[in-house]
Amino acid sequence: MLRNIKFMLIVFLGITITSCDDDFLETTPTDAISATDALANEENMQLILNGIHRGLYSQSQTVFPGGNSTWANNHFWLPMGDNLTGGLIHSANANNLGWRSVMQWNTHTDQTSGMNEVFWYHRYNIILHANLLINRGNEGTLTETPELSEILGQAYTYRAYAYLSLVQHFAKGYLIADPSTEPGVPLLFSSESPFTSAGRSTVQEIYDQIESDLNEAITAFENGTGRPSGGPETKSQLNINVAYGLLARTALSKGDWQTAADAAVKAREGFPLMSEDDWKSGFNSNELSEVIWGSNVIDAETTFFRSYFYLASNTFNGSQIRNNPKIADRRLVDAIPDSDYRKDVFIVEAPNTNSSAANNEGGLDPDTGLPRDPNYAGDLEAYNERRAEINAQYGINNNFNQHPYMHFKLKNANPGSIDPDDIIYMRSSEMYLIEAEAKAMMGDITGAQNALRPLGEERDSAYNVSAFSTVELLMDQIKFQRGVELWGEGFGYTDKIRWDEGIDHSTDGGSGASEVLYQAAFKQDKPSVNNRWVFKIPQAEIDANPNLTPADQNK
Q1: Contact partners, residue 391, CB within 8 Å, separation at least 6
Q2: Domains and CATH numbers, the chain
Q3: pLDDT single digits (tens) 198-224
Q4: What are phi and psi of 119, to 5 degrees?
Q5: pTM of the predicted model, to two decimals?
Q6: 423-482 pLDDT, tens per residue?
Q7: Contact at 8 Å (CB) between 76 and 108?
Q8: Which residues contact residue 386 at a Cβ distance below 8 angstroms, ignoring those fewer than 6 apart?
Q9: Quick check: 548 and 186 in contact, CB under 8 A?
Q10: What is the C-alpha to C-alpha distance for residues 311 and 305, in angstroms, rounded to an integer?
């Protein structure tokens, strides 16, 4: 792997034990911890696992050498999927953390991009530490216990998660190319120096490894202790539901519809759908009943202005949000029926208060002192009253700009602050939608309707699933439901690749995005004919890995 992977192990173990066990530090300094000590027993192996958990949301420079404070790992990678595909729309020209450059498709298409390098690094860092635990657990020298099985279940699940993330970004989609010949990413099984990976395996080989790891994980979890009970921190620990959820995602992305449907049902067991109040509470806590897996962000280790909510939530008190409120595609919002309570979090008539808004309709006219927003037709009193109402309702103030179609789906638990919040990775709603899509793709109309019904009827008091009586109608409805239900949660990129759909902000009345601001990202052809959807492999990896050459770079 990259040159710095040689140094990841000792640094990561140091972070893990410093964070998790002060008693261990009293006898073993962090700069002297060896792999042997760290893997000596189940208790220490759990410390490594806890380090992986925290590494999901820590700033990357605290996880491995060569990291960068710009990217706080999943705080950035999770919403990136909607930032790239124009679901999470920028209303003004702000580029904190390079978020605008990512949106404009200037970053993932650059092989020298620091973002690509850190993303690649982070996922292989997870794989390396999963390998440590898997290789140690399978040596045969440790007693097989439920505790060891639980650790191995999490390690296998983490490795599958990292490979799925890598192959979905750094290779062409399984369903739009020949997976048996399409180059994927390198496999790494080593847990000892020099950590040299193989060359690029095929997409099929990577998927085979992912499925093997998830099957191993499920077997291990079946023999394990189970996830501990408790507060939101327990959902940072992976469990059998997470493994089934990742299996459902994997199978869906490759068109293995029956496996996807079956795994999705198992993944959501024990995680009931949220009520209206919970759905509108902000998606800021693992406490929510639907959350199968999420990072419980520890206050002392918050990333503040590197966080998910800094990039995506209109209640976070940061310049990325105050100067550039995020809006939803108005074509999607306008299609939500009034009987669906999810529509309430998208504020269609929010006044455009930003004089720097990309649509040139924000703020007050310097000559007349009246609103330029055509929704208020020069009515300053109504404009100010509505702004004050939104401020009061959502806990912000006039330091925050507003914009039509702005969202309040993602909200800080303490709005108007920079306090840390949890990051949600997997919910049971997604699993209903996976089952529905898989059943529709198999031509099982009734099965797909039955999968959609619980979610649709919970969210929409007038929902009538029988209206979707053909595969085409069902798929249109499933795409709509994913767009609304999972908005802002990062699924836009992988959804469009699976469906082989391009981006066009201009059709059907327009999304509300500015072509001047979005540039080339305003319109992109579908993934099957457009190599720009595939992330460039970091040039630093090609330079350092003896098993990769310039010919291995994605075209």
Answers
A1: 397, 398, 400
A2: 5-76+106-283+535-552 (1.25.40.390)
A3: 899 999 999 999 999 999 999 999 999
A4: -60, -50
A5: 0.94
A6: 999 999 999 999 999 999 999 999 999 999 999 999 999 999 999 999 999 999 999 999
A7: no
A8: 349, 350, 351, 376
A9: yes
A10: 8
